[in-house]
Design brief:
about 40% helix, Rossmann fold, P-loop_NTPase, about 475 residues, 14 strands, single chain, Magnesium chelatase, 20 helices, about 15% strand
């Protein structure tokens, strides 16, 4: 298991309250800090939300307005729209280092203690109050809402051990604080908020509005300083629960997320997120992106559930893995994905798609049709207007070309030899002036499949699983 490495604070930072005051440090709330740092990044032209793709003109402007207004935020959208990525990106807008009272459970600011213990410590130590510095990566808390989440998990509960030590139940120091107060002076995110039982959602009401918490029947006045963000699926799809109306009313901003609006953004997302174990040419990635969008728009697919961006990412990774498998079996050192490798996606990823009830048993058939359509669209988009007669002439006299999952690139290229127009095809596909053997084979197979889908070549599968193109 990989451990999170927390950076070491610079040695020249103040170590006591007196040194902090002398340094000219200014106390700001979390929302003031986010607002000022966001404005500074806007003025400097620095990326505000690194790693978030496809939201520059839609979601992010709304999020920026919410942060500038000091609003808590709920992100509403279907699965796989990057809601968690957006929430986690907010950490970059916090100060890199912030001072806290040494030993404080709630990360209290030295200028603004809120618990009785820290207030007493500050009064006794005066300017010698020791402080430590907290990195922004430690100022983010996140909870995946589940039906078994309790008030104690989020807010806190009475610690029976402290009661047994002689403290009374009314003593605030008997409380074991939950995740929300422990994220004081930071950002707390609740993933899938409607999955919280309604009685648990009630516990967040005071946190959002009055900024205090109530535990076990008595109120502990703790002016918590945090930004609360949450994610949720649309209520018409999430039958497991809903956000209760009073809680929804306390969020200052409700922002709708969406899937990438155009093909280029879908491709950008795949390139950023997919961990590819073999080379996947751009035209093959484009097929995957078009396929994902076609599945989302298909009337056979339940639109309320959505088709996650993880579908496209997993599809690209599966295609790369298919190429790597071929390389391993056939001894190719630099395997390159080809259009035939995309077929594996229809069976391995069908579990990521929720179909309409009337389509039971036709899932593979539907996905295969959408994949063929996506290949044809990519073929038209990439190679429209090119003279491809050199490829059709290869089989004009009854010849055939065999390719497939376990056909080496060299074997495919040997069958086609020197083809008039191949250089222009490879140029259109962005494979450069000096493509590798694997890239050239990927280009050839793409043309053959495109010619088949436009009814200029026939296609058959032989007994050993090879694909045969002919007239």
């Amino acid at each position: 298991m990989t451990e999170t490495v927390v950076p070491t604070p610079p040695s020249d930072l103040p170590r006591t309250l007196g040194e902090l005051r002398a340094s000219g440090h200014r106390y700001r709330t979390v929302k003031q800090e986010l607002r000022e740092n966001l404005i500074a990044r806007m003025r400097d032209g620095v990326p505000r939300f690194p790693g978030v793709v496809g939201y520059s003109d839609t979601v992010l402007p709304e999020l920026e307005r919410a942060l500038l207004a000091g609003h808590d935020v709920v992100l509403l959208g279907e699965r796989g729209q990057g809601k968690t990525r957006v929430m986690r990106s907010l950490v970059a807008l916090l100060d890199e280092w912030t001072p806290v009272i040494a030993g404080s459970e709630l990360n209290e600011h030295p200028f603004h203690p809120i618990t009785p213990a820290s207030t007493r410590q500050a009064a006794e130590a005066g300017d010698d109050l020791p402080i430590r510095w907290l990195h922004r990566s430690m100022r983010y808390g996140e909870k995946l809402a589940t039906p078994d989440t309790s008030v104690g998990d989020l807010i806190g509960d009475v610690d029976p051990i402290r009661v047994a030590q002689g403290r009374t139940l009314g003593d605030p120091e008997t409380i074991h604080f939950g995740l929300v107060p422990r994220t004081n002076r930071g950002i707390f995110a609740v993933n899938e908020l409607p999955d919280l039982a309604e009685r648990i959602q009630v516990s967040l009401l005071n946190v959002l509005e009055e900024r205090d918490i109530q535990i076990r029947g008595y109120q502990l006045r703790l002016p918590l300083d945090l930004l609360l963000v949450a994610s949720a699926n649309p209520e018409d799809y999430t039958n497991r629960g809903r956000i209760i109306t009073p809680l929804k009313d306390r969020f200052g901003a409700e922002i709708r997320t969406h899937y990438p609006l155009d093909l280029d953004l879908e491709l950008d997302l795949i390139r950023q997120e997919a961990q590819l174990v073999a080379e996947v040419p751009d035209h093959v990635l484009e097929i995957v992106a078009r396929f994902t969008r076609a599945v989302r728009e298909s009337p056979s697919v339940d639109a309320r559930s959505g088709v996650s961006a993880r579908f496209a990412i997993a599809a690209a990774e599966t295609v790369a893995a298919s190429a790597l498998r071929r390389g391993g079996l056939l001894g190719e050192d630099q395997p390159v994905a080809r259009v035939g490798d995309t077929v594996s996606v229809t069976s391995t990823l069908r579990g990521k798609v929720e179909f309409e009830s009337g389509e039971e048993g036709r899932e593979i058939e539907i996905l295969a049709h959408l994949l063929r359509t996506s290949v044809a669209e990519t073929f038209h988009a990439r190679l429209a207007g090119l003279d491809l007669s050199g490829f059709t002439n290869l089989v004009a006299d009854g010849g055939v070309i065999e390719t497939g999952d376990l056909v080496r690139a060299d074997e495919l290229l040997r069958q086609v030899g020197t083809v008039p127009g191949l250089a222009k095809v490879l140029d259109r596909l962005g494979l450069g002036d000096a493509p590798s053997r694997g890239e050239a084979a990927a280009g050839v197979e793409f043309v053959l499949e495109g010619l088949h889908l436009t009814r200029r070549l026939s296609k058959d599968l032989n007994d050993d699983g090879r694909t045969v193109y002919g007239v």
